[in-house]
Amino acid sequence: MTDKPNYSGAGDRIPGPSTGDLSEPMARAIREQVREELQVVRDELGAELREQSRRRTVRLYGGAAAAALYGGGALAACLVLLFGLAMPVWIAALIVGVLLMLVAAALKNSAGEHHGAAHHGRRPHFPRPHHGAR
Length: 134
Prior knowledge:
Elements: H1 19-84, H2 89-119
């Protein structure tokens, strides 16, 4: 007997799958996982951009409403001054105030006609905005 270890030579191959055969399914799984993660990131970014766009739109509508309110006040003051040329100013202010209240009532009633049938006399429900973590 000899004391030499029984090692296979450098040219001998161990039977079984090659490195390429083993790495291909792993590479495919990694590519699929990366695609899925990128899709999740795209969806989240899209949702965040839509939310920011909604917030921007709400702020712009709020600014437009404030500007319209100031413009309406200036026009009401102008109307009071114009009527004040023909009558006492307090009567002119009273007339303009009553006219504005009539316009407000007419607008309220016209808005209520569209929603009244659908809600059967109940007030319409406006969802509250979601304030998520920033």
